[in-house]
Model the fold of this input.
Amino acid sequence: MHTIRPRRLRVNGQIRSLIRETRLRVDDLIYPIFLVEGNKVKNEISALPGCYHFSIDMIGKEIEELVKLGINSVILFGVPDKKEELGSEAYKENGIVQKGIREIKKISRDIVVITDVCMCQYTDHGHCGIIENKMVNNDLTLKYLRRIALSHAEAGADMLAPSDMMDGRVGAIREELDQNGFNNISIMSYSAKYASAFYGPFRGVVNSAPQFGDRRTYQMDPSNSDEALRETELDIMEGADIVMVKPALSYLDIIRRIKDNFNVPIAAYNVSGEYAMIKAAAKMGLLEEKSAAIEMLTSIKRAGADIIITYFAKDLARWVMEGNV
Ligand code: PBG
Done:
């Protein structure tokens, strides 16, 4: 018997490319953008090197750069000046995200504007909903999520991404949108969102760490996998157009199970801690940033993600343009 030689298909770059199973594409990426109040602000975020806080007047150049790089989708996060118990800055007509949506749409009609629908950046206690007796009250929170969603739709968002993990929020938001004539606005639901330590840098960026307790009464337990299927199934039944797994890296198995069990597009959120780890290790000379980032992003796609939300989007687009991705 002759030796079976899988190495034949690895002898050079061209053959390896011919049989490559997973490819990263720039148009599968969503780039997160952080908006702050004020003027002329473009401040690099120390926890997320290469990412910035932008005031609305500075967003134009960034959008033009994204368009040039071939990145067609952004997800907006607002960092309001004022936070209070009911998070009212989140659903104001002239809130930071609502202004951002209108400004971006003025610059480019084509860029897909997705918004994070949640309360934690807007509440002084830092939880993702309305507090009653030291607990987030689910059904009361739904009323506020409806208002946030509607205000984003009215400002011109293309897609809403509820990240609060309240029960029934996809159905409530879908109903609110449809009742108000926004049946073409889609919902990308953070379906399997885990209570993760990897959100650390993000919470610093938007100043949203909970002031008491933690998020484990609404975000999922990292030990669970069947429950992710149940959450995903519920979101699809309630009307989610795209489902999401978050974080990505420690949850590649969850991405794969959802891919094998459902028939809707899957997004994965390559979260702030996953980005910051590579940046920090590269800075210390421990690994090579580009190869590590490409390997990580490729693993997320190989696991089954159709869409990746990542702070590496601009870097990846540049690497793709230079070739050899
Ligand atoms: C808001 C929200 C969070 C992230 C996205 N939306 C933080 C959280 O739930 O604490 C995390 C994003 C990241 O870490 O990159 N609910």
The chain has one domain: 23-321. The two ends are 37 Å apart (CA to CA).
